[in-house]
Amino acid sequence: MALTGHDGTTIFALSTAGLPSAIAIIRLSGPQSGAALAALTGRTFESRRASLALIRDPDNGEPVDRALILWFPGPDTATGEDMAEFHVHGSRAVAAKMLEILSDMNGLRGAEAGEFTRRAFLSGRMDLSETEGLGDLLAAETESQRRHALAMAEGGLASRIADWRERLLAAEARLEAVLNFSDEGDVDEGDEKFALDVASDVHSEILTVLEAPPAERLRDGIRVALAGPPNAGKSTLFNALIAREAAIVSPTAGTTRDVIEAPVDIDGVAFLFSDTAGLRESGDAIEDEGVARARQTSQRADIILWLGAPADAPDGDRVVILHARADEGGRATKPEQAVLAVSAKTGEGMDALRALLLERARAMLPRDDQLALNQRQRQALRDAGASLETAQGGDWILLVETIRQARAALDRLSGHGGVEDMLDALFGRFCIGK
After folding, report:
1. How far apart are CA 148 and CA 13, in angstroms?
2. 161, 133, 128: which is closest to 148 by C-alpha?
3. How far is CA 118 from CA 44, 128, 160, 166, 428, in A?
4. How many Å from the N-terminal Cα to the C-terminal Cα in the chain?
5. Are strands 51-56 and 108-110 parallel, antiparallel or unpaired?
6. What is the CB-side half-sphere exposure of residue 374 using CA atoms within 13 A?
7. Model confidence pLDDT, tens digit, residues 367-382
8. pLDDT tens digits, one per residue of 159-195
């Protein structure tokens, strides 16, 4: 894909964070990268070889820093353009001076959030699914998020799309050739069977990919709501699960009046735990609002930890009935309906509870051999699958059209059509310098 969609300027940005640091990397991309490099160092550089050079202010010749320089001539670069990197000492003063000098150069401007990656996409160095995977990789906080995001960023979905498009294009080409260059009486039934077989096979493969759980659970975490009546031990258990005192614990009923949420990484899996108000009719307007929010949170939860009487537990496979406060007098016997007896104070049953949560969570998340698709990707694949599902023999023109519609949906999936607004939102998630 040709490089279009930006103003043709050369962009620059500080691509490392957390100054001061040992090294600060400043990146340039665009047609003036080589000229800027020459102006700052007074020399040229061998392609893709690190070199040490003294950087000077072009206006007065004053030394700025001695740095490691890398020169990457386009188009075989991350962005498809000429690129340069300055690996300077990571002080705030050095970085600020470098950015000041670059800002004063003609044809250069500071990069916007995600602009380097956007140029990589526009130059065809990455397709949209790889770009989305990179965005998720940058935001990954757990091991499972990292693995799935890296698989997407490394082209896990892009390679599938390319394969499907190539096969559908071959089927469409054979049908088009017959339609355009043969009389109806010379139609080759083998071409029709070939196209129908391709449509059927690709449709089946798309359905298999769509069977994987969605990426949103992987990204946002498995939502776990702690629910039950007042004084059931929800807040105490919540604090134990998140390993900090986030919720107020009190023997006074109705202490928790709003939903308290905390993200937790358990063995590489992201969870979002919610402590909720005790479920009761109080007559207090504020507490009643807290109860209403508690019910809403439970409705949205992937897992509900119920700490009340088993007979009062909500119905459904999402509910895990716990016998909480198992260390207290008179609560030594676990009801038959309860899955586990737990005590946040003594630690009884806590390891078993975490193991149970992990077991349930992994059943809700994509396996390592599955692609984690976001909502946009799933919808585009559904559209492609729906078109192929209607592919039938008999009318060659309709068969060609269904295959073409499926290819158009795959093009949207890879970012080749009608996604400008979505691109703005996507690249806005990236940091400056990426």
Report:
1. 28
2. 133
3. 28, 10, 22, 25, 10
4. 21
5. unpaired
6. 18
7. 888 888 888 899 999 9
8. 999 999 989 988 888 887 777 655 554 556 677 888 8
